[in-house]
Write a structure and sequence with these properties.
single chain; about 180 residues; mainly alpha
Length: about 180
Amino acid sequence: MAVAGLLMFGKTVRAEITSNIFLTEGFPRAISVIMVIFIAIIPITKIPLNSRPIISSIDKMLSLDARSIASPGFLAGMSETSRGLLRSLVRIVVTIVILIIGIFVPSFDTVMSLMGSVFCFSICIILPLAFYLKIFGHEMSTKEKILDWFMIVVSVILAVVGTVWVCLPASMTGATTAL
């Protein structure tokens, strides 16, 4: 994204792409507003997608998952309405926790970078590869196993480096904000 911004806007590129969109001449104002609205929708859709594994884990721990209704737990015998209300409460609480984290980390780019480096690497690359190894490991050739392990290790390293880099102060990374 940074390279595309640099190529599009040159050395006057700003930290947030939406700032550059509003300053670009030649585009109708309505298109710029629509693009900014679409960009604003991204975090709204990322929160449910990224919180889904957390919510599923909590549902399983509390025996709220539809597949675990028959399992004995402290919620055994609870009515379907009560289960539905408790599942809704879990979703609301997880969303509120994510929003509170967003409030205490007010920098939008920091939140998006953290979500990308931690959640996206984990959900999109590391976990699928690990599950594939676990499920099909006995059927895989040695080459495939080595390749999968290599991709997992590289992804973990990139996720850790990305997370650490996001948490470092801008003065240490050499980043400047041009707002």
